[in-house]
Design brief:
The structure is a single chain. It contains 13 helices and 24 strands. Strand 17, helix 12 (395-411) and strand 18 form a beta-alpha-beta unit. It has helices spanning 35-38, 59-74, 87-95, 101-106, 131-144, 164-180, 273-278, 300-313, 327-335, 342-346, 362-376, 395-411, 498-508; strands at 27-28, 43-44, 48-53, 78-82, 110-114, 148-152, 184-190, 208-217, 220-230, 240-245, 248-251, 267-268, 284-285, 289-294, 318-322, 350-354, 380-384, 415-421, 441-450, 453-463, 473-478, 481-484, 488-489, 495-496. Helix 11 (362-376) packs parallel to helix 12. The chain is an alpha/beta fold and 509 residues long. The protein has a nine-stranded mixed β-sheet with strand order 5-4-6-7-3-8-9-10-11, sandwiched between helices. A nine-stranded mixed β-sheet has the order 16-15-17-18-14-19-20-21-22, sandwiched between helices.
Length: 509
């Protein structure tokens, strides 16, 4: 492709404001989950944003969702100009995310233009000029009154050029043309090697640069997003995980929730009368985070299930996230201690979501939990056990993920109960993930061996904002549920447990 160079056509600004009423940079909200939080309101309105990354990292899908959300949620028609995929390919690919591009096209909310460029057929001859592109794109914009534009992938326009100064000049000219038309634009670029883009120049002539990345660690793929540059606006510059699923793109900002949630004084029963007594007879604060940690077989899941049953009886909705057992297995096992979960499952008061941790990455698990909570709005959430997440992330990564999840649930005033497996003695005041500092309430469960038998015990390590017992209490599981037994002391002053306690009580009678 070789054309003679001509001066740029005269253009006219449409008068779209580039500053808001308070003088800050005007922004166009993307409608993409989490991205508007990271960008503090959206992309720069009437300016160009570069989205760059390697193949398969999600550039095209993010750009397409920007147009779809703009049309559906903000009434801003868009033009998608593709230099690689055909219109039919784009329509079919977007359908997997639930986007009906054909319907948007019929409503004149979206125009898709495909410019066929074959790299092997391009050659450099004379001076390069984008006049034809300006005419075609300008017609598409005017035809539907477009406010948003996507150019995907821009490098193909310059793949035959050897002179980088010409490339940079033409890119600057292209961005000036888009800015003069007062459209909010996304231009996607292919990352190559250590450079942000194939030519390493585009980032210098755009107002906002978003870098997408996909990496594989321990056979688990993770997508990450970073706002590298945003002229005239504060923004989050950290790498942030994002996910592409059947609902589109979801960005997971680490700091978007913070510690601004309210603190309720309402108390909820633990489901075990004796355990309520250890909290002054009233149970947990609503919206608090509770950790049950201990070795295998100490009763963590049983205590969690009894808490769930009590909540369902109060008329609350409970979401149980299980990482080891299937829903039927959980319901069957809990029947042995008199906890009936099946009726609440049938009434849709309880939902058990069972999945192996290795089925998804950490970010995908987090997004899935967010979506389940947003869709169903439970008052109680149980995760059993969180230590299994180590299979898909390091302890530091799992702790960061849980911190974000806890903040999210606190903003919803959801009472969350987590179980955690520990090594060695159940009395060891540590957790495999080091998450105890994130929790409002931490209880340790353990097995005590004496007289040839093992007996379960529970203690409250901390309970923020409420008085609590400092005793180590024995508890038993019966066909009528879990119950704490009264403290009984042997003749030598030690605490008697199990058969020793039973014998002492019989003697006292």
């Amino acid at each position: 492709m070789a054309v003679a160079r001509r001066p740029p056509p005269p253009t006219k600004r449409t008068g779209t404001r580039q500053r808001s009423a308070d003088g800050s940079l005007a922004k166009a909200p993307t409608g993409i989950s989490g991205l508007d939080e990271v960008t503090r309101g959206g992309l720069p309105r009437g300016r160009t944003t570069l989205v760059c990354g390697s193949a398969g990292c999600g550039k095209t899908l993010l750009a397409m969702e920007f147009l779809v959300r703009g049309a559906l949620e903000f009434g801003e028609p868009g033009v998608f100009l593709s230099f690689e995929e055909t219109s039919q390919d784009l329509v079919e690919n977007a359908r997997s995310l639930g986007f009906d591009l054909q319907r948007l096209r019929s409503r004149r909310l979206l125009t898709i233009e495909h410019v066929h460029l074959e790299r092997t057929e391009l050659s450099e001859a004379g001076e390069y000029d984008l006049e034809g592109l300006f005419i075609r794109l300008g017609h598409a914009i005017d035809a539907i009154g477009a406010k948003r534009v996507v150019l995907d992938t821009v490098e193909l326009l310059f793949s035959a050029l050897a002179d980088r100064s010409v490339v940079r000049a033409e890119l600057a000219r292209l961005f000036r043309w888009l800015k003069a038309r007062a459209v909010t634009a996304i231009v996607t670029g292919e990352r190559e090697g250590d450079q942000l883009t194939r030519y390493g120049l585009e980032e210098y002539v755009s107002d906002c640069v978003i870098v997408l990345d996909q990496r594989v660690v321990d056979q688990s793929a993770t997508r990450r997003l970073r706002i590298l540059k945003y002229r005239g606006s504060a923004h989050d510059g950290n790498e942030i995980p994002f996910l592409i699923d059947e609902r589109g793109v979801s960005v997971l900002p680490i700091t978007s929730l913070g510690l601004a949630h309210r603190a309720s004084s309402e108390r909820l029963s633990t489901g075990v009368a004796g355990l309520d007594g250890m909290f002054g007879g009233r149970g947990y604060f609503r919206g608090s985070s509770v950790l049950l940690s201990g070795t295998a077989g100490t009763g963590k899941s049983s205590l969690a299930s009894q808490f769930v049953e009590a909540a369902c009886k109060r008329g609350e909705k409970c979401l149980y996230l299980a990482f080891e057992e299937s829903p039927p297995q959980i319901a069957r096992n809990m029947r042995s201690i008199g906890v009936r979960l099946q009726p609440w499952l049938r009434q849709d008061r309880l939902r058990i979501h069972a999945q192996r941790p290795t089925a998804l990455g950490l970010e995908a698990h987090l997004v899935a939990i967010h979506q389940m909570i947003d869709a169903w709005r439970p008052q109680i959430v149980v995760m059993d056990p969180v230590t299994n997440l180590i299979a898909v992330g390091s302890p530091i990564e799992v702790k960061a993920m849980l911190a974000r999840l806890i903040d999210f649930m606190k903003t919803r005033q959801i009472t969350a109960l987590f179980t955690s497996l520990t090594d060695g003695s159940g009395a060891s005041e540590q957790t495999d993930l080091g998450v105890s500092s994130l929790m409002d309430i931490w209880m340790l469960l353990g097995n005590r061996e004496a007289n040839g038998e093992r007996n379960r015990a529970i203690q409250i390590v901390k309970a923020r904002g409420m008085p609590h017992s400092n005793q180590v209490r024995e508890f038993v599981m019966t066909g009528r549920g879990i119950s704490l037994v009264d403290v009984s002391r042997a003749a030598d002053g030690s605490v008697a447990v199990g058969s020793t306690r039973g014998a002492q009580q019989r003697r006292a009678e």
